Amino acid sequence: MEQEVDHDMHEPSSFFTKYVWSQDHKVIAIQYSVIAILVGLVALVLSGLMRLQLGFPGSFDFIDPSAYYQFVTMHGMIMVIYLLTAIFLGGFGNYLIPLMVGARDMVFPFVNMLSVWFYLLAVIVLMASFFVPGGPTGAGWTLYPPQAILPGTPGSDWGIILMLVSLAIFIVAATMGGLNYVTTVLQARTRGMTLMRMPLTVWGIFMATVLALLAFPALFVSAVMMLFDKTLGTSFFMPAILSMGQQLEHEGGSPILFQHLFWFFGHPEVYIVALPAFGIVSDLISTHARKNIFGYRLMVWAIIAIGIMSFVVWAHHMYISGMNPMFGYFFATTTLIIAVPTAIKVYNWVLTIWQGNIRLNVPMLFALGFVSTFTIGGLTGLFLGNVVVDLPLSDTYFVVAHFHMVMGVSPILVVFGGIYHWYPKMTGRMMDETMGRMHFWGTFLGTYAIYFPMHYLGVLGVPRRYFAYENYDFIPDSAKDLNAIISVMAIFVALIQLIFLFNLVWSLFKGKPSGDNPWEATTLEWQTETTPPGHGNWGKELPVCHRWAYDYSVPGHEQDYLPQNYNEVKEEAKL
Amino acid sequence: MSFLSPLMEKSWEQGAAPQSQYLGREHTRKAGLRLLLTVVSVLFFLFFVAFLMRSQYPDWQPLAEEANHPLFDKSILWLNTIYLVLASVCLQWARVAGRKKNPLGLKPGLVLAGLFSGAFVTGQLMFWQQLYQQGFMVDSNPALSFFYIFTGLHATHVGIGLLAWLGTLAAMLRGSAKLSKYVELCAIYWHFLLGLWLVLFMLLVSKPETYNAIVAFCGLGA
Question: Do B42 and A192 make contact, defined as CB atoms within 8 angstroms?
Answer without folding.
Answer: no
